[in-house]
Design goal:
This protein is an all-beta fold. 0% of the residues lie in helices and 43% in strands. It has a four-stranded antiparallel beta sheet, with no helix packed on it.
Length: 115
């Protein structure tokens, strides 16, 4: 198995705790969330109704969709609240020398099933 390729996203100092920011990395919209538990990255599109998750709210590790209120855990993309039934794809994140980096090849929820 090959090592994932991490893409530089933004400086950790540019994303205060409790905030999130959507970036396009390698042609994909990724939402980076800075929770007390760490920095996490998930797909920016809700699996329920294709809403933009960056227009929603981040409450701790709970990401709430702006359209119908579905909620997801930013740590792994799992569904925390209906009406969504499929998890958000989530991506490996690391912080190197103050820079947040995301590995897009390592999406987890895409294989997690659900529906």
């Amino acid at each position: 198995m090959t090592e994932p390729i991490f893409h530089p996203a933004l400086a950790l100092a540019e994303l205060p705790q409790g905030r999130m920011r959507c970036l396009t990395l390698a042609g994909r919209e990724v939402l980076i969330c800075h929770a007390r538990e760490g920095v996490f990255a998930v797909d920016n599109t809700c699996t329920h109704a294709l809403a933009r998750m960056d227009e929603g709210r981040l409450r701790g590790v709970r990401l709430i969709c702006p359209l119908h209120g579905a909620s997801f855990d930013v740590r792994d993309g799992r569904v925390l609240g209906a009406p969504a039934s499929r998890p958000l794809p989530s991506y490996p994140v690391r912080v190197v020398a103050g820079m947040i980096e995301v590995a897009l090849e390592g999406a987890t929820a895409a294989q997690a099933g659900g529906g």
